[in-house]
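User: Can you predict the 3D structure of Galactokinase? Sequence below.
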Amino acid sequence: AGAPELEWNVSEGVITGQLVSSFGDDHGVAPDGVWRAPGRVNLMGEHTDYNDGLVLPMALPWGVTAAFTPTDDGVVEVSSAQRPEDGTVRFRPASLDADRPSVPGWAAYVAGVFWALREAGHLADGTAGARIRVDSDLPVGAALSSSAALECAVLLAAAETFELGALAADRPAMARIARRAENAYVGAPTGIMDQSASLRCKEGHALYLDCRSEGGRNVALGLDDAGLRLLIIDTRVQHRLAAGGGYAQRRAECEKAAELLGVDALRDVEDLAAALETLGGDPVLRRRVKHIVTEIHRVNAAVGLLRAGQPGELGALFTASHLSMKDDFEISCPELDLAVETACRAGARGARMTGGGFGGSAVALIAEDRVDRVRDAVADAFAAKGLTAPEFRDAVPSQGAERLR
Ligand code: GAF
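Assistant: Sure. Here are the predicted structure tokens for Galactokinase:
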């Protein structure tokens, strides 16, 4: 996997150089430092995080980079290389109110981080401000966690430059703060997976995370040794996590099912057959519960295979997981199904949609010598149906958020 790594390093270096120089154009000085937080691809455990369950994401070579200088004037000024038309967005962290969110669009994630830091008891005297410029090589709306990457890059920069030492050393605590920014300030009712992946993943590994205890283990993937690749197929169908959409509806259905079953969360369902019987009159809730319970089992099964040094066997689990998301959780879409079915038919070991669903990306596990064949077959299948051409990316398991300079 030499080539993708090289690509990443080049892209990272270019982004850092451009960021430092445009930060200088904006503010007349060099930034104090540059931080980068990656996106993620989840390999197993979809919609299980907010059910207190298990997940298995890995960090990607692409992410959000933030040039950052702390100030004590109580003002944040932030600009984005992707949104030059928005210019510099200004807000006062001390005046932010989650009941009346005043910072719109992409900058809401940045404001949310400052709001959540304050809520957690940090930066309480109201003087904290910052000059920030962000850049990204992660597509937005591809279900690769660009929101969490933005939150985590800014949060890590803030924690390290405001000398919040205990926080900066506590990645699970940072993940909670970044999630709070997204849930309470931005208003997207997501779980803890994406922020945990961005902050806690290690190169070459996936993060086996228990979303209830927040205990996590980095599990080696061993893809290179097994001659395997993970190919991300971005369908270019934009997915959204905002309140009121399908994601929030699934979350509400899971909560209702847990209540009917008398458990704190669907994680606690021990006997699936008995649970399905209890929910007998509600076929929709039965399907939702079936997905969550079997998906949590698949996370454990996947980790078992990785620990046994059999990453190739993950393929069957990928495909079973996709079918569960398609038929029982009903979060797939025709483009994701086409990508998965075509990849499997062209020789992938398995494939599944990843992330929140209703669009975004699929991930396929493929023997190295079949990657081109799979890529061509999927591109042809999309073209034959007159769909927007999908984008392909080699997903190399990468390092979590860190300071670059
Ligand atoms: C999105 C959410 F942000 C995560 O918390 C998780 O629920 C995921 O969808 C589905 O597994 O990425």
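The mean pLDDT is 95. The first helix runs from residue 2 to 27.
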